[in-house]
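Wed. Picked up where I left off yesterday with Formate dehydrogenase. The coffee machine is broken again, so keeping this brief.
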Amino acid sequence: MSNESSQHLSRRSFLRGGALGAAAASTFGLRTAETLAGHDGEYSKTAPPPTGFDFTKGSGQLQPDKIVDSACQFCNCNCRLKVHVKDGRVIDVLGEDADPVQAGGLCVKAEMMTQLVYNRFRLTRPLKRVGGEKGSMDSKFEPCSWEEALEIIAKKFLTLRDAGDAKAIANKTSGRLQRGTGSIIGRFFTLLGSPNDTDVGPVCNDAGGDALGTTFGLGNFTNGYGKDENTGKEDLGSARFFLFLGTNQAETQPMTFAYLLRERLKTKAKLIVIDPRLTPTGAQADEWIAPKPHTDLALVLAFLQHIIAQKLYDAKLVAKWVLGFDQLKKHLADHDYTPEWAEKITGVPATKIKAIAEGYAKARPAAIFCNAGISHQLGAFDTYRTLAFLAAITGNIGVHGGGCNFMHNTWPGGLNLLPVMGETPKKDGELPVGPDWFAESILHSRPYQLKAIVTEGNPLIGSANSKKVQEAFKKLEFYVFTGLFMEEAAYYADVILPVASGFEMDGVYMRRDDRAIRWQHAAVARVGESKTDIEIWIDLAAAMAKLDTKNKPEYWTGNLRAEWKDFGKLWAEFVARTPGVGGMSQTRMEKRAEPLRWPCASEKTPGVSTLYLDHASWYQAAEALDPKNKGKRFLTGSGKVEIFTAELDQKLVGAGHSALPIFYTHPEVTGQNPSIVYEEELVPNAINPGSVTPNVTLGGLSDGKVHEQFPLMGMCGRASVVHFAGVTQWTYFGKQMNGVRLVQIHPRTAEKSGVAQGDKIVIESPRGAITGTATLWEGIREDTIFIPNSFGPAQAMGDEFGLPRYETANTLLDDRYFDNLSGQQAYKCFAVRVRKA
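Structure written out below (tokens, as returned):
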């Protein structure tokens, strides 16, 4: 075997084992904060050694006919998958050696891409409801043709539109879609006249993007993995300090996290992980800090106060590039947001808060990373804003190795199509931001009633207060589910449409956190009669054209062209018409082993790695985004970082907030804390124009009464590195490796509750109850339990292993509590109690 082959096999084995190894090290070899201090930072020591021999070489059975460049759909690492195909079927999946960030590696989820293709539970034909109660797994469906299925949908949509009820139709996308699907759906809804084409952002990380856009001008992850091709310098790998808040990248972004850890071995950068529980990410850290859930805003306000009080900020940068620093300084002093104050709120010692603040401010460059742990709080927007302030005043924005790297905000606001031909209906009356408002609209007609919904995801798993969502979807007049499997939501549907999996489509699918995308090719033929979501919506437009008596057929078919079902042609349209995408052609991406970052203005320029970098490449890209940006470093109205302006403050005050955030938290955080009250009044959303939102009053003390019966705080999150949303629960590996809902509970808390290791337990909140299995875990606060999400009662694959079917974890959540600006739900804190089943 050649040295190259040996090296490849070793790397492949290490990283396939490494992702699981990190989780195993955390689970079976708990490292407390004391032992973490001397940790050497290696990613994993549990991976199996290579054999040194490749016994597939020379095998007539195992040599592929072709190797197809595809990509993984399961997280924002955007790993290239080298799909080995034999006789039209996948026989192996390898990583991309030539990508220095991926470094040939894959996590355990890569092989599950194949299990989405070859899966006996796949939906293969359109189905229509013929009987049974909505939501019941005894619901009866029968196959129908695509023509009939789309005609049913088109007739319903046109009936509602012609009755003046177009806004009663809504759609919600998900993260599994080809890039640009949202633009196609948005075009369809423009033609229809409904404002309610919503996206997955409020379930992911819209708050981070909203905060970044408000403060710096673009709502995107600010820095890049690997080298900046414009400067030749390492970007995030050059950080001297990593501040991770509420992000568990070892399980959620394992390959890019592995890259950061490899670079950290060279730089000796410090890694601080802030999370109420010890995760596999925290197990790699120099220090793990465990604040009370939903109190990160207090922690960051104290960081800011201490840095300013100690004059550790970058005075030159602040003077030149920041608006509102003096107002921020006064605000922090007036509210006495000191480390000592934050200690009482968060439970983190003031001395530790000061040390972290000083370490971050002095290290330079220092990078902040956040994910769902911050996004899934009712104060998400304000918390992200304070983190943006932290980066700005310390000189850690617009520099390699720094930035605000808030997960999921990875792509421009939309990909542009040619202008709409013809006169379209006026769209008004958009619902409040966030798909969890769907239930409120259906059940209580607030502000009006939705009557027809299409989803490309599973709201019965993803939305808060699952019982309320179930009740709403039973009452919903008409529902269309598109998906790979008969998930929970499918049983409420009137029409079910089968979609293609990632290995069955061309184009741009997932994206890396740092705005990087790659082209992928279909590796295998479509299963059954499945279609991509883009194809579905364009074909639905054609069905509308046949039935619409108010518009000529060209109104639909000319604005949603059949040729765009060829993703290559659609992408060429996007590239030609979307600012900042001009250099991201299919041909260019096909030639690259590495993904290509946005913005990328032309074929002659590399993509931008560090946003706001004081470098010609950034100024060129900024101008390509909008000619009005010429000469601007930051893309706000002022061209500077906007901490405070009178205009911004006035806008936010209208929705109950302010440009300078005050501390408040969820009313179900233990103790009495400054909290939030939601008004009945719906007011314009200051961050999402065109939408309305409940007005709020901030700062009044919570009464703590809920904890008389429910003394603990629950948190939901990723089950393990094995799972990504609910789709991996339908794979053989997913259920084999992590098919039991293991609820983390501190041993002393478990003892008080009469619970032992491995006991079947019931977790109850004021909204309902679910079951799980207790796993005693010293690496979690005693007042907190962690409940893995993405489990659901329809997951038939678990039956293969004799596993229980669980109710969704979101049964426990209260949908009334959410970030009224971004729509983010508060998945990270809710009052619970635990008992043995």
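Quick read: The longest strand covers residues 674-684.
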